[in-house]
Amino acid sequence: RTNNTTKEEENFPAMSEWLNKNYANVNEVKALNEYLQTHMYVEAGARSATETDVKLHALLHSFVSRLTNKKQLTYVNVCRWFDHIQQTGKCDSALPKISFSLFAPPVQRKLVIPECTASTSTAKPAAAAAVKASTSKPAAAGNIKSSSSAQPSQQKQQQKGKQPAKKQQANRQPKKSAPVAGSPPSRLHIVVGRVLEVKNHPDSETLYVEMIDVGEPQPRQVVSGLRNFISIEEFTNKQVLVMINLRPSKFRGVMSSGMVMCASSQDHATLEVLSPPEGVAIGERVNIEGEDGEPDALLPKKKSPWEVCAPKFLVDAKGVCGYDGKALTTSKGVITCNPALAGGRVG
Predict the structure, then answer these.
(1) Could you give the CA distance from residue 170 to residue 103 in angstroms, rounded to a whole number?
(2) Cβ atoms within 10 Å, residue 192
(3) Cα(227)–Cα(201) distance, integer angstroms
(4) β-strand partners of 250
(5) How far apart (Å, rounded) are the C-alpha atoms in residues 347 and 333?
(6) 25-55 confidence digits (pLDDT tens)
(7) Confidence bin at 253 (pLDDT 50/70/90)
(8) CA separation for the pair 27, 146 (Å, rounded)
(9) 105, 210, 227, 295: which is deepest, by most CB within 10 A?
(10) If you write DSSP's letter for every residue of 124-135 in order, what string do you get?
């Protein structure tokens, strides 16, 4: 992932302060996880792992090694960063590498079959008795009065006998399940946009502030960490892909309402701003093959689908960008980039 931040950088500590935190306190780990959601390395704007990353890797090794698969998803950004740092070969060789499973397991639903109640067994004898009484021979004249008076009580018994059967039938009807939300990737809203204006961020050497037309009545202001990768001249008037349902956030005091999608090499030294095929209309949604659900109006702050999906957004060997092997598509074709970025992240 690139430095297309989605959190307010001014709320985070300076990079040197990360080494002075007590990571036995889970709140400190949560703060680091939030920071790494929008940073590839601890030092903002870094294009490769630094000494700060290596030292922080050693500090967190004990904590990360104890995480269960479920807890790895809770700290998905820390685990993504940790795994990348341990693959650089710069870490202490005495620290064993840790395996990660950063994808949510499938949900298994248990089929519940209602148990038969004892009242069901008494329903049939009661009903049978009622039928037998109604089909028997007429009683003697002297007994007509008594038999007619007994008829209401027999009807009541029949009704009592039938009630458990009705209840049992109601119990057998399947319960209506709650509506299931779309799959995590289908909930992301990525559209085609055009960059109208680009300015340097007044308080950052790595950030741009862009005004982007995404097909809405007013252009969106987006802050992106692309200053070290693309010039203002090249960026201006460029067609881009923008994720527009991230929660608006400030970067160094400037509000951002989206994220420009990019592809980066596996070592994150090279980055390319993604563009749609020629002829795609501004505002058109970029889909994922086989994912047809409606996007969220705004992604939740906690358990965001983007955090779950991000590790699976990759570039394949042919330079096709996609999610879990399924291409990002438009009405004019798939989204591609330089094949030299194969195996790199999209985000």
Answers:
(1) 40
(2) 25
(3) 9
(4) 255
(5) 19
(6) 888 889 888 888 888 888 877 778 888 889 9
(7) very high
(8) 82
(9) 210
(10) HHHHHHHHHHHH
Q: How far apart are CA 320 and CA 346, in angstroms?
A: 10
Q: What Cα–Cα distance (Å) separates residue 334 from each residue in 1, 262, 276, 322, 337?
A: 20, 15, 8, 9, 10
Write the single-letter amino acid at 152: P
SS3 97: coil
What burial letters (b/e) apply to 56-69, b meaning 16+ CB within 10 Å? bbeebbebbeebee
Type of residue numbered 182: G
- Nearest alpha-carbon partner for 226 in 213, 214, 244, 238: 238
- Token readout for 257 is 């309402």
How many angstroms separate the Cα of 291 from the Cα of each of 53, 58, 287, 343? Answer: 36, 40, 7, 22
58 sits in which H/E element: helix 51-65
Task: Write phi, then psi, for 34 (nearest 5 degrees).
Answer: -65, -40
Mean pLDDT check: name the lowest of 39-53, 78-92, 233-247, 278-292.
39-53
